[in-house]
Amino acid sequence: MEQKKWNECVAYQIYPKSFKDSNGDGIGDLRGIIEKLDYLKDLGINLLWISPIYQSPFVDQGYDISDYYKIAEEFGTMEDFDELLAQAKKRGIDVIMDLVINHTSDQHEWFQKALKDPEGKYGNYYHFCKGKDGNPPTNYRSYFGGSTWEPVEGTDLYYLHAFAKEQPDLNWENPEVLAELYKMINWWLDKGIAGFRIDAIINIKKHPDLPNYAADGDDGLVKYTTMVENTEGIGELLRDLKENTFDKHGAFTVGEVFNVDEEGLKEFIGPDGYFTTMFDFTGEILSKGKHGWYDAPKWDFTKWRDKVFEAHEKIRGIGFYANVIENHDEPRGANRYLPKSLQNSKGIKMLAAVYLFLPGLPFIYQGQEIGMQNFTAKSIDEYDDINTIDEYKKAIAAGLTKEQALEVCNTHSRDNARTPMQWNESENAGFTTGKPWLKVNDNYKTINVESEKANPESVLNFYKEAIILHKEDNYKELFAKGELRACFTEYKEIFAYERVLGDKKVLIAANFGESAVEVEKDLGEGIILLTNENIDNAEKNKLRLSPGAIRVILEKE
Q1: Is the pTM of this model over 0.70?
Q2: Which one of 60, 150, 256, 465 is the catalytic residue?
């Protein structure tokens, strides 16, 4: 099956619980998404990623799946999903779903049977091990804190969970497990989805000996990733997965993959890779603290810019990235990437253009296109996210006051991206007629779709302009395939690069600083394709960038 030119697409991620509620229960749903498909088409979207909608107890917001073949009641029915798929296709929008196959919910039928007989068939679907001297089998720390091992009541056994204790890891060395997973994946692809965003996939391979490692914290535990990074053989599992599922359908796949070395990139993506593409998590990686959010480093713009260029240089000739500045697991990009003085319409437009025109496939997260920002919780009780609550406890244990710990969460919490979509200035931002499951950001009166549609200078309309340019016949091949050349890196607050294909050259230049910068470059007869400020004729042949300014310029010799 001929592969689509996925890197000429513009993708959009929906977090269903917070996108649009159609029935007033305070939770977004599939019929709410159907209602807004014309909005997505008008924005210029042709690839839609929907975060998990499977049946789930929602301990980890749907990433704990209790039945892969059912839609969660909160979101609707399978008939609703079929209608969504058909209506999206009518509008030229392909749909991809989340594929969560490192673990299931502890409420999944397989795990419930495993608990009843850990030594039986279903016990071998998971990882059950005996403890050692009254302690867990190993000293791994889960992604959400605490041991990765949960004791099984009435036995000397523990089961493994890389994430929450309600998310037991599947045993990928068991052929019966693989047969079940492959059957499920092909079932969804046969239904007509275009592919998957693949969750936490690096965790599927466990070290056969499950060794202990030197502790890296006062709790006597070590990061689970230490074991993952010291384990070989994941390639065989991923190759088998691809050949038995994705390849049969010409499916699009994007992997949630961290820390792949340069040599490994050739195995993971590209025409012969395990996946079509993978996310570039440069910004996320640079935001991580050694022990948690509380000791995260201060944001360093220049380091981020240089690392983005470095990441794209490594991938040159291999494949392309899926580019993101925010998603459901990260705070809002406007707050992470911009200084406070530029956390406004002008700065957000600049950030949008800088990432939209990088090589690869841009993913827009819901609300990003209107400039949604972090919210400010007044109490930890306002958070729902299990990870945020764990990080708050870590910060308190490290000696921070409650006020300081809350400020850390307000900066880094995943719930910043999960507050309801802001559609208009009516109650609850037009998201629901009921009580929203999570607090609506207080700024919805000024930042919302309806008001921005009516304002030609809005962030939303800038996104539309940028997407039109990205997909325009004269430029789409350049932005999809053109070489990336970093420019003006001697200026610490300038993010600039050229995209070059044949004799066509486009310059993208932005000023992330708080002072104007005049770059040593004569633009000559260059044509400004996109900018976020008015420029008089006398300035058109100079590259003078005020704070927050962006230029996208077709260069002429």
Answers
A1: yes
A2: 256
